[in-house]
């Protein structure tokens, strides 16, 4: 077995046959159910919270309020401070105290013998507030003259972070012959994972241990965050992650409901389970994106970008989630994109609003940065009269410039941006497009084509320790602190190890998602798993071979220097002895035979920490047709050329890319977590109102890749989990604007819904 092969995912059989095990499938002895009363108001001071009727209802075991938790010593949910330390985190109470700050904020918790009983009790709660003005967009919150959403802040401007040299950038703008500017909104989206958030907490009063089941993106991070809110012994808190039905950033974070479930189980001495319904998910899951941005280029007359400056107003919601203020700042380091821009300055204003907290959503800041610069590149091409591909060609970072230090301080590892773009445009028949446009025009349709060249940052921080061992039954066991949420770790990790050890992936098991069995781990986020944990496994497999040679020397009674290993077998160089690695591993359980330097099962461990991030990149080309009578946009053709470094499994790679594209196109065309600007009510709390991408309008994706290895890990991989999301939205919006250009439409913000497109055409006359 070698890497680079399109091996079908091992884990799919259990998913397709219904034998997957998710959090809501778990029902424990003595199980109880948790439901929440949530605020119907966006902003106000609590004047009434009457839970007396709820407490008296059949089957109700307990009702808790924010004051109850505060009196019991439960602390607010952990949150991220400003990355520069200028402000402390705006931590969220697990249940609101004194004030509510967004629709859907949990106010009271009810635990009962059934979910229906708990919900009936929640419905009986009397609640009222003295309403305060609500601000749900960054612009409205910054302009608000009333009291700040948090009394200890002087305004809703939480803080500003920046990259680059402002003085130098402004000086270039003063003398540049051409300037181009753009204002865009990166719309707010809801993660809408197929499996909603859920948890099941079980406290054992006999020994003080707590077991928490929760689908997540890293059990160690979840455990440590729970400990910051609830008093428990770390050694007695075990977190297990079952199968996960979609993560997308959402499930990396601790939110209020888990804290309440853990506390309630500790108080009641019984298991407490909570599973969100869909509307509850829309109201309470951390959302993504939601930026209002302004950007400018300073250019020479030939279209060469001399400088760029940008201001981003980023919505962080009513409280700071665990990476809330970090994501806009981190993503903005990629503001310069694929281009050799000598001077750049970007300022990111973090803004508090009356909305559910905003945090990482697939791509986590990089799609926002790419959308901004790729929209600006198209605008520059239009205003300077330069072809869209040519203006990019003139500004790309050249292959001989790597490693390339950007004006934001990031060191890009490798890339062939122009080559990637040329390949994508050729496959999309860019040069033949005008003929196709004329054919559409003859049918009364508007046809457009657009593309986006992107680069993103992955695997930028942290380390992972992995373990490999053979068990007594001869199966190979891999242990990793990352967490698969659909990426196929069980398959790709097995391929990496099999390529070294010569074992079959069907005889390999992955241990993950259990703080008792996995000593350490930083979880799955930022497309880091393959580059970091995969590299650790690669090194660890080499150590297993070395241990196997020592063990084989003992078995063969031959010098270790005379032992060779190839194709899963050890043999002496004279050919007198030979044995499979599995047989040598089984021999290692014999204490009398095993050398002191060898562990049973040839067990080895290795920790890998990369030297800098990796930078996947690519080009997405989108061709659309618009019906001017209805505003409906139809995607006719979608072409992708990607460089994600060395590819371990092409089949898994394509699944990741296409899945990301679906989410990027969903945001661009239909998805919008919309709040009413006057009342603060969430208008898109069901699938009737929130426009998920549909299979009947998602295109077949013409996907290809070329391997430009990253020098920053032994596998040469760069990461692919978020890449599709990064390039899709600007490619589609650029295509839509190209289709509308002849009608006089110059700008549209996402999502470019039929109504929005139709209205723009009417306004343009």
Give a quick set of tags describing it:
765 residues; alpha+beta; five-stranded mixed sheet; 28 strands; 28% helix
Task: Give the gist of this structure.
28% of the residues lie in helices and 24% in strands. The strands form seven sheets. It has a seven-stranded mixed β-sheet with strand order 3-5-1-12-9-10-11, with helices on both faces. A five-stranded mixed β-sheet has the order 7-15-14-13-8, with helices on both faces. Strands 18-26-27-28 form a four-stranded mixed β-sheet, with helices on both faces.
Architecture overview:
Helices cover 28% and strands 24% of the residues. The protein contains 20 helices and 28 strands. Strands 3-5-1-12-9-10-11 form a 7-stranded mixed sheet, with helices on both faces. The protein has a 5-stranded mixed sheet with strand order 7-15-14-13-8, sandwiched between helices. α15 packs parallel to α16 and α18 crosses α19. The longest helix is centred in the last third of the chain and has 28 residues. The chain is globular. It starts with 11 loop residues before the first helix and ends with a helix.
Largest sheet: 7 strands, mixed
| Beta fraction | 15-25%
Question: What distance lies between the first and last C-alpha atoms, to the nearest angstrom?
Answer: 62 Å
Low-confidence stretches: none
């Amino acid at each position: 077995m070698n890497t680079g092969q399109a091996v079908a995912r091992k884990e799919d059989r259990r998913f397709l046959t219904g034998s997957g095990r998710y959090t809501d499938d778990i029902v424990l002895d003595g199980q109880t159910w948790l439901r929440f009363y949530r605020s119907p108001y966006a902003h106000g001071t609590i004047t009434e919270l009457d839970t007396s009727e709820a407490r008296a209802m059949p089957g109700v075991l307990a009702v808790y309020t924010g004051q109850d938790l505060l009196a019991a010593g439960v602390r607010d949910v952990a949150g991220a401070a400003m990355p520069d330390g200028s402000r402390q985190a705006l931590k969220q109470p697990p249940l609101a105290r004194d004030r509510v700050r967004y629709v859907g904020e949990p106010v009271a918790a009810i635990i009962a013998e059934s979910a229906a009983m708990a919900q009936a009790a929640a419905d009986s709660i009397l609640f009222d507030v003295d309403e305060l003005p609500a601000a749900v967009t960054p612009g409205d919150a910054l302009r608000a003259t009333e009291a700040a959403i948090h009394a200890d802040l002087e305004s809703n401007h939480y803080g500003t972070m920046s990259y680059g040299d402002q003085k130098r950038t402004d000086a270039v703008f003063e003398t540049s012959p051409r300037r181009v500017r753009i204002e865009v909104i990166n719309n707010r989206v809801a993660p809408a994972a197929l499996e909603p958030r859920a948890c099941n907490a079980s406290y054992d009063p006999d020994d003080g241990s707590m077991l928490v089941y929760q689908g997540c993106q890293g059990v160690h991070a979840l455990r440590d965050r729970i400990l910051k809110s609830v008093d428990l012994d770390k050694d007695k808190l075990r977190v297990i992650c079952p199968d996960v039905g979609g993560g997308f950033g959402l499930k990396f974070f601790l939110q209020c409901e888990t804290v309440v479930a853990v506390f309630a189980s500790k108080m009641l001495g019984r298991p407490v389970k909570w599973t969100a319904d869909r509307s509850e998910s829309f109201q309470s899951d951390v959302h993504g994106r939601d930026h209002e941005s302004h950007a400018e280029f300073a250019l020479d007359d030939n279209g060469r970008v001399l400088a760029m400056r940008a201001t981003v107003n980023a919505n962080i919601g009513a409280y700071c989630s665990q990476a809330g203020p970090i994501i806009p700042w981190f993503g903005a380091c990629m503001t310069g994109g694929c281009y050799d821009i000598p001077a750049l300055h970007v300022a990111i204003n973090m803004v508090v609003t009356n909305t559910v907290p905003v945090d990482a959503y697939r791509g986590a800041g990089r799609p926002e940065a790419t959308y901004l610069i790729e929209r600006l590149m198209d605008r520059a091409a239009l205003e300077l009269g330069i072809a869209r591909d040519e203006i990019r060609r003139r500004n790309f970072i050249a292959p001989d410039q790597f490693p390339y230090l950007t004006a934001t301080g990031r060191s890009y590892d490798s890339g062939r941006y122009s080559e990637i773009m040329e390949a994508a445009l050729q496959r999309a028949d860019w040069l033949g497009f005008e003929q196709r446009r004329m054919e559409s025009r003859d049918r009364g349709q508007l046809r457009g084509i657009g593309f986006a060249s992107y680069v993103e940052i992955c695997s930028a921080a942290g380390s992972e320790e992995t373990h490999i061992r053979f068990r007594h039954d001869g199966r190979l066991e891999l242990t990793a602190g990352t967490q698969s949420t659909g990426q196929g770790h069980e398959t790709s990790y097995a391929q990496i190890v099999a390529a070294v050890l010569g074992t079959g992936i069907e005889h390999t098991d992955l241990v993950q998602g259990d703080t008792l069995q996995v000593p350490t781990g930083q979880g799955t986020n930022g497309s880091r798993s393959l580059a970091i944990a995969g590299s650790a496994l690669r090194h660890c497999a080499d150590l297993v071979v070395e241990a196997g040679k020592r063990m084989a020397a003992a078995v063969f009674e031959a010098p270790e220097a005379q032992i060779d290993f190839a194709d899963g077998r050890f043999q002496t160089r004279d050919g007198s002895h030979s044995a499979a690695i599995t047989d040598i591993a089984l021999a290692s359980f014999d204490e009398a035979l095993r050398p002191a330097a060898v562990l049973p099962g040839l067990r080895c461990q290795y920790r890998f920490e990369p030297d800098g991030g990796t930078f996947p990149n690519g080009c997405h080309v989108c061709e659309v047709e618009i019906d001017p009578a209805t505003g409906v946009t139809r995607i006719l053709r979608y072409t992708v050329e990607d460089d994600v470094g060395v590819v371990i499994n092409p089949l898994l790679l394509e699944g990741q890319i296409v899945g990301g594209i679906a989410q990027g196109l969903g945001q661009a065309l239909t998805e919008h977590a919309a709040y009413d600007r006057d009342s603060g009510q969430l208008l898109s709390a069901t699938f009737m109102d929130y426009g998920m991408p549909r299979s009947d309008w998602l295109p077949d994706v013409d996907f290809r890749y070329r391997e430009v290895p990253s020098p920053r890990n032994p596998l040469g991989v760069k990461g692919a989990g978020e890449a599709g999301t990064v390039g899709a939205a600007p490619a589609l919006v650029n295509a839509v604007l190209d289709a509308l250009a002849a009608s006089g439409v110059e700008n549209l913000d996402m999502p470019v819904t039929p109504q929005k497109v139709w209205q723009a055409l009417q306004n343009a006359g």
